[in-house]
Amino acid sequence: MKILLSNDDGYLAPGLLALYDALAPIADEIVVVAPDSNRSGSSNSLTLDRPLSVFQADNGFYFCNGTPSDCVHIALTGILKFRPDLVVSGINQGQNMGDDTLYSGTVAAATEGYLFGLPAIAFSQVDKGWDEIKSAARVAREVVERRFEQLSSHFLLNVNIPNLPYEQIKPPLATRLGKRHPSEAVIRAQDPSGRDVYWIGPCGRQKDAGEGTDFHATAHGHVSITPLQIDLTHARQLDLLKQVLS
Ligand code: MN
Q1: In the chain, what are the domains?
Q2: What pLDDT does 153 receive?
């Protein structure tokens, strides 16, 4: 198995290092191309207004001064000398569940591989702080080893792993994305010149965290695996809109 590995927390992040260590023994080839700094929340953005540079660290990891999507895009179209069998992203510091998935750079890195026709998996740990990151990496390897060939040659999986010791993590459940209420208010402050500046506020409370959701699965100690798709077309409203316009 040939793997392209990326993330959005940057090439020095403990979650990336742990995932590399877990996957390297089961990979024929594994190449890391990751952002040079933390690009969490960058979603699927591509950098189009400046050229990008790629460097190689002492441990062999490539790092790029762009977004997670840039990294995977450049890897697949310019750096890799092989077509990977799988694109893996993570392990992110913090959950990417429900509406978070739209903003996530972790999910975006995997999505970029998916858009190139490759199977792709995004991994996140539910709580920040890297507690039990080695347990999460071990779980991630088990998920990768399942291969999921029954799904299709082409899939995008969003995996969230509770921060628990390995023995306490419950088996994976297939889930749907939950939903959150709108974000909390923006946090206003002043810069040294007295101008107002704004920090984006925390994400909203859980709105749909019922059984079957990613929120519910991880709250009960399970690994959550949600299959994602990219087509944003609202099929039901498409039909309604056709009636409205006819
Ligand atoms: Mn992140």
Answers
A1: 2-177+207-245 (3.40.1210.10)
A2: 84
